[in-house]
Amino acid sequence: MENSENFDANELIEVPLIILFFYFCKYTNYKVLFVKKNERYMAEINNLQRQGFASKFGVIAATAGSAVGLGNIWRFPYVTGTNGGGAFIFIYLIFVIVIVINVMLCEFIIGRSAQKNPVGAFKKLAPGKHWHFVGLMGVVAAFVILAFYSTVAGWTLEYIFKSITNAFSNKNPSELSSMFDTFKSGNFLPVLWQLVFMGLTVWIIISGVQKGIEKYSKILMPLLLIIIIILDIRAITLPCAGKGLSFLFNPDFSKVTGNTILQALGQAFFSLSVGMGTLITYGSYINKKENLANTAVTVAGIDTLVAILAGIAIFPAVFAFGIEPSAGPGLVFITLPNIFQQMTGGYIFSLLFFVLLLVAALTSSISVLEVVVVYFVEELKMVRRKATIVAGVLISILGISCTLSWGAMSGISFFGKNIFDLLDFSASNIFLPIGGLFIVLFIGWFYKKEFTRQELSNNGKFKVRYFSVFIFLVKFIAPVAIAIIFLNGIGLLKF
Ligand code: PHE
Q1: Ligand 1 pocket residue status of 364, Cβ below 6 Å
Q2: Which of 118, 415, 428, 442 would be 266's cystine partner, CB 3.0–4.6 Å?
């Protein structure tokens, strides 16, 4: 009896001890894990801050890689086509020079001086103020843009596949046109390709700034340029080339409306990757020795050149094969197969073109995803790999609804637009211009002029002769113009 009482008593002490020990182990183990994770996180943060683009060519390739994309080769021709041609291009060019280059420079200034993601950058440069909401809006815009962007990039993958299997040969223009419509209104295939594309984007971004973004941009951008030039040479030797070129370069101002002007501004923002913090992010990777204004002018120059070259490659074919220039988002996918099947070596050129369209899309999509990822890493304290995967998955979910806009979800429309058109339109014509407006207001009215000058002159290393013109444009012209165009375009102001 006594013995058994003793035994019970021992057991009574032992049980709580075991439980205590169990919790002790659990706690310390957690702590070890937590510290490890934290160390890994801190190492990543330091690495990210240390890591920027490694060379001048890398800066240009990556930034031009962001700017040159589907916006130039897919969107520019079809928006030009639906907005009457030459007059649209004329207005577009004026916007690039007077407004958008300056917004680009403002983003570089914010990014490079703060060395942070768009939200963190505003928090650092304007502590205790609400400016970081501008950065947050950029992160939201990144979701919206990549959602519909990956749809079109997915179409590109299908067209690579079609090129390989020689699917365009012996098809007349109307067959090629219905081939595209049938594919786009399917469900499985377009979504599959979209997810493959998102996978590629995630894969590059996981590798980081130098081994991912910079490395791929440096290889892919020069290739893109060479192929576009080859296609241009073929296009301008087509029978109706003259008509196509005059559609592009002879402005007919009678077609210009408030909406045309809004579209031109929206296209300029979209094409130059401006207004949502991509260039704040890339600006934070630019070396302190680079001249920011030169970089902005070079990137805007390359981007505009590629847009015009894409127009030259596409419009002669539009007229030569009797397709309406206002065919909409499918324009490139319908016209180019027509050229390819007429030209010697068309098989290989078709393949190259769609591969390079994919490449252009990739060097841009990574820059959009990077905005979200670096925000997750720096503000939400995630490790890069996890941040990239989480962002990729969330964006893909939104993206699928865009892809299904002509298929399973074609019944859904808002303001007369399907989901894809709604996101495409609102990203360029609402999110980006409003983001841009706040960015110029920040540099024009809030940020100290001396800081701006320091950033532009690399701490006084050289003179900034254009400084007062820049400030004047950023303080008055750009904000007023963006506000008027925006209100007029959405119908709140009539002129
Ligand atoms: N500029 C890219 C293009 O022309 C798209 C893009 C928009 C990229 C906004 C980043 C930010 O395709």
Answers
A1: yes
A2: 428
Please work out, in degrees rounded to the nearest 5, the angle formed at the alpha carbon of residue 107 by the alpha carbons of 105 and 112. Answer: 95
Ligand 1 lined by 145 (C-beta under 6 Å): yes
Backbone angles phi, psi at 432, to 5 degrees: -65, -50
- CB of 367 sitting under 6 A from ligand 1: yes
**Cα distance between residue 304 and residue 272, in whole Å:** 9
- For the chain, the domain total comes to 1
Q: CA Rg, the chain, in Å?
A: 26
Q: How far apart, in whole angstroms, are the C-alpha atoms of residue 440 and residue 269?
A: 13
Three-class SS state of 290: coil
**Residue 358 maps to a domain:** yes
Along the chain (495 residues), what's the average pLDDT of each consecutive run of 10 residues? 49 58 52 52 51 82 93 90 89 96 97 96 96 97 96 96 93 91 95 97 85 78 86 84 89 86 91 96 93 96 95 86 78 84 80 86 94 95 95 97 93 89 89 95 97 95 94 96 85 70
State in Å: Cα 309 to ligand 1 middle.
Answer: 17
Taking the centre of ligand 1 as the mean of its atom positions, its distance from the CA of residue 367, in whole angstroms, is 8
Domain membership flag for residue 17: no
Q: Which pair of tokens denotes residue 250?
A: 């002879």
Cα–Cα distance between 78 and 154 in angstroms, integer?
Answer: 18
Give, to the nearest 10 degrees, the angle between helix 132-164 and helix 419-426. Answer: 130
Q: Which atom of ligand 1 is nearest to the CA of 432?
A: 9
> Residue 348 belongs to a domain with what CATH number?
1.20.1740.10
CA-nearest residue, atom 7 of ligand 1? 273
Domain range for 147 is 55-489
Q: What is the residue with the minimal CA distance to atom 10 of ligand 1?
A: 273
Q: Is residue 25 part of a domain?
A: no
The per-residue DSSP string of 334-379 comes to: HHHHHHHHHSTTHHHHHHHHHHHHHHHHHHHHHHHHHHHHHHHHHH
**Cα–ligand 1 centroid distance for 271 (angstroms):** 5
Is the minimum distance from the CB of 271 to ligand 1 under 6 angstroms? yes
The CB of 270 under 6 Å from ligand 1? The reply is yes
**Is 295 touching ligand 1 by the criterion CB < 6 Å?**
no
Q: How far apart are CA 362 and CA 365, in angstroms?
A: 5
